[in-house]
Each structure stands twice: as structure tokens, then as C-alpha cells.
Write a structure and sequence with these properties.
Immunoglobulin-like; single chain; about 45% strand
Length: about 350
């Protein structure tokens, strides 16, 4: 695997903090990755010593609560924590493209309200190997390149296979082969399961598959990754589109939202293309949950209101899921009614508000 090293990221307030060893990690599909952090917490509060009850890593929320990766079915039997006093590492094996996400660390203590999440977290990007074909003036030979969008270490050892059989003498990323359509080749990087088969003939991209991570509910402000992949030779180029928008949103196989907003809600698709053809994926709808916006209140009838008449008050707020409404009278603590519309059958001079 390959780490794109960024300066350590420290998130904290007062005596609470989480420091990640890097902010971005790029790794190969099928490999293993380790994400590390150190943390601090307030040792004593309100006369009571602080004890750490639990530490977790997570990418998703369920009912606004973090989902521990150890209980997340998408990571079953693939995650391992290694935690000691004020440090913790997360190990994920057999990486999948759907593992591309933002990973956060959370401390849970015995203190009231004594939980803390290091945010933003670490962005993990998973990519597969691709076999690129370099043509030459000699049409009887082709040079294959085992390529990754991750910047692999210079001393990475490559493994090549011919018709499924390992070629013992070949360990570099480049391999020259005769132009024989009856032979297939694949490559891997030592220490991973990631392979990409190259059939020694050209073809247009097949129907792309599109994945979203996390696959659970998506909350405004969270990190979201879309992944597009398609079998093609030579390797396909990708372009992302949002429905009803002409301009492309991205031009890589992976499209990342570092902090998704309600405006990003909609249907997305990707186009896969090479010189032999192009094809669009099916649409993927991204639904984003967000808190209610500032409510607006309208009154009906909007003309002159006569004391003793009937009046409807309507409260509206943009929210997903839809907001619940409660009506209050100014300077009174008890609610007057619930629901978006409040009807007053015998109106008197009063002021009403609607928290949502």
C-alpha cells in the first residue's frame, strides 16, 4: 500500500484532542492499510477522575450515532484495533473500493458528555491496478505497464502472470509482450491480492459500476466518495456528471466530497471511455440528510384579520427528513399545538412562534 503523507492533523478543544499521523492515505485494492492516531483527554472533571470506557473508529452514522467498524457488516472480519494508553491504530485487510471514505476516531469516557471525535478524520482512497498498453512502431510487440493512481513506493515489486501462470523473471512495472491475441496477462504488486487481467486485444469499455461510500445514511457535512470502474482495454478514462448539469463534476474514477452539502443532493452518473468507445453508467441517487433551515411563517387570510374570525398559521422549513413543527405563544413555555398548520378559530391579539 502507499501513503500520501500530509502534515499531522491535530483536532482538539481544551484538554481533548486527536492527532492523526496523516490526513490522506491511498492504497491498492486487496492490500492492507493501517491508520494511526494519538489522543488526549481531560484527566479530571468536576472532582472525578476521567476513565476511557471505549475507543472506536467509524465512517458512518446510524440515528446520529457513530457505527463502530467492528460491528459494521461492510467490514466483517477485516478490521482490527491496536490501542494502548492514548494511542490507537486501525488495521483494515483485503481492501475494497467501497472502503474509500473518511475515517474518524472517537473517545468515550465516564464523564457526562465526555465523548470526543477527531474531525476531520483521515481520507482513505482505494484504487485498483490497471494494465496500460504502450504501442510502438513495431506492431508485433506491445509494452504493458502495471499502473496505479496511487503513488507506489519506488522499490515496489511487481508480479506478472501469463495465462494465469507466474512469470518468475519479471518484477518491474513494465513488461514487453508479443502481440498475440490468444494470450492473456495480469499483474499484481507483491503483498497484495490486487490483479488486473489484460487480454491482448483492444475493446471499448463495458458498462461501468458505480459505488457510494458510506453506503448508509449520508449526513450533511460528512465525507462521501463515489467510485466508478469499468473493464476496458486500454484502460478507460472517467467523467462524472450530475443530472441536469452540463459541466462535468470530476474526471477521475473516484469523486470525493470532503464535506457534502444539501446542494449536492441528486443523481450522479459516470462516463467510461477510451479510443474504442464510450458508455454511461446507470444513475446513482445521493440522498443527503440535513437539519431544518430557518422557518418561514405565513398567515391566511393575509388580508385584514378581524378579532373572532378563523385564521390558519403555516410554518415551512427546508429539512431532510421532513421537520416536525411545534407552535408556541410568545412568553409562554408550553406548546400551543404541533403540526405544520395551526388553526385559530376565535382569534385574539397574540404572537406565535414555531421552533423546528
Amino acid at each position: 500500500d502507499c501513503v500520501l503523507q500530509s502534515p499531522p492533523l491535530i483536532q482538539g478543544q481544551n484538554d481533548w484532542g486527536v492527532t492523526y499521523s496523516s490526513t490522506e492515505i491511498c492504497a491498492l485494492k486487496g492490500s492492507t492499510v493501517e491508520i494511526n492516531c494519538t489522543y488526549t483527554y481531560q484527566s479530571r472533571k468536576d472532582g472525578h477522575d476521567t476513565e476511557v470506557n471505549k475507543t472506536i473508529w467509524f465512517t458512518k452514522l446510524s440515528e446520529k450515532q457513530p457505527v463502530d467498524l467492528r460491528t459494521d457488516s461492510d467490514y466483517q472480519d477485516r478490521v482490527e484495533y491496536s490501542c494502548s494508553e492514548k494511542s490507537c491504530s486501525l488495521r483494515i485487510t483485503d481492501l475494497r473500493e467501497s472502503d474509500s471514505a473518511e475515517y474518524k476516531f472517537r473517545i468515550i469516557t465516564n464523564q457526562p458528555g465526555g465523548s470526543y471525535t477527531g474531525s476531520p478524520g483521515v481520507t482513505l482512497r482505494i484504487t485498483d491496478l490497471q494494465v496500460q498498453v504502450n504501442t510502438s512502431s513495431d506492431t508485433s510487440w506491445r509494452e504493458l505497464n502495471c499502473h496505479s493512481s496511487c503513488q507506489l513506493p519506488d522499490r515496489s515489486s511487481y508480479i506478472w502472470y501469463k495465462n494465469g501462470q507466474k512469470i518468475q523473471s519479471q518484477t518491474s512495472s513494465f513488461y514487453s509482450v508479443p502481440n498475440n491475441k490468444e494470450v492473456s496477462y495480469s499483474c499484481a504488486v507483491k503483498g497484495t491480492k490486487s490483479t488486473k487481467i489484460y487480454l491482448n486485444h483492444n475493446n471499448a469499455p463495458k458498462l461501468p459500476s458505480v459505488l457510494v461510500s458510506p453506503s448508509a445514511e449520508i449526513v450533511e457535512g460528512s465525507s462521501v466518495t463515489l467510485t466508478c470502474s469499468s473493464d476496458a482495454n486500454p484502460a478507460a478514462n472517467y467523467t462524472w456528471y450530475k443530472k441536469n448539469e452540463d459541466s462535468p463534476k470530476g474526471q477521475e474514477g473516484i469523486y470525493h466530497f470532503s464535506s457534502i452539502s444539501s446542494e449536492d443532493r441528486g443523481s450522479y452518473s459516470c462516463k467510461s471511455e477510451n479510443q474504442y468507445g464510450e458508455i454511461n453508467s446507470s444513475s446513482l441517487f445521493i440522498d443527503i440528510q440535513y437539519a431544518p433551515r430557518l422557518p418561514s411563517v405565513s398567515v391566511s387570510p393575509s388580508a385584514e384579520i378581524v378579532e373572532g374570525s378563523s385564521v390558519n398559521l403555516t410554518c415551512s422549513s427546508d429539512a431532510n427528513p421532513a421537520a416536525n413543527y411545534t407552535w408556541y405563544k410568545e412568553n409562554e413555555d408550553s406548546p400551543k399545538a404541533s403540526g405544520q398548520i395551526f388553526t385559530i378559530t376565535d382569534i385574539r391579539s397574540e404572537v406565535f412562534t414555531t421552533p423546528v
